[in-house]
Design goal:
With about 110 residues, the chain is of the alpha/beta class. It has one domain: Glutaredoxin. The chain is built from four helices and five strands.
Length: about 110
């Protein structure tokens, strides 16, 4: 983790890293045991490096950070939520193609 400009998020850092961020933030809600999460991880890393400087990308382990996961109603992982100006703009559930994620990201930039 922590690779290619990806921020490791937790319940206590979520507010400052995501909700108060100047840039839009793509949050990957995941868990280490989740197969689709592992499939999606390299795609999330590609997005992080492609949009570096314009988009912040963070990963939140749902097992270790249940407060935030419950707050955003995370029932299936992986779930990607795009935040802008402290609000959840859009979300994608499941391992999807990079083009789907980029479509969502471009709306926020």
């Amino acid at each position: 983790m922590g690779s290619a400009g990806i921020v490791e998020l937790n319940d206590s850092s979520f507010d400052s890293e995501v909700l108060k961020s100047e840039a839009p933030v793509l949050v990957d809600f995941w868990a280490p045991w989740c197969g689709p999460c592992r499939i999606l991880a390299p795609v999330v890393e590609e997005i992080a490096s492609s949009y570096m400087g314009r988009l912040k990308v963070g990963k939140l382990n749902v097992d270790d950070n249940q407060e935030i996961s419950m707050q955003y109603g995370i029932r299936s992982i992986p779930t990607l939520i795009l935040f802008k100006n402290g609000k959840a703009l859009d979300q994608i559930i499941g391992a999807v193609p990079k083009s789907e994620i980029e479509k969502m990201v471009k709306k926020a930039l």
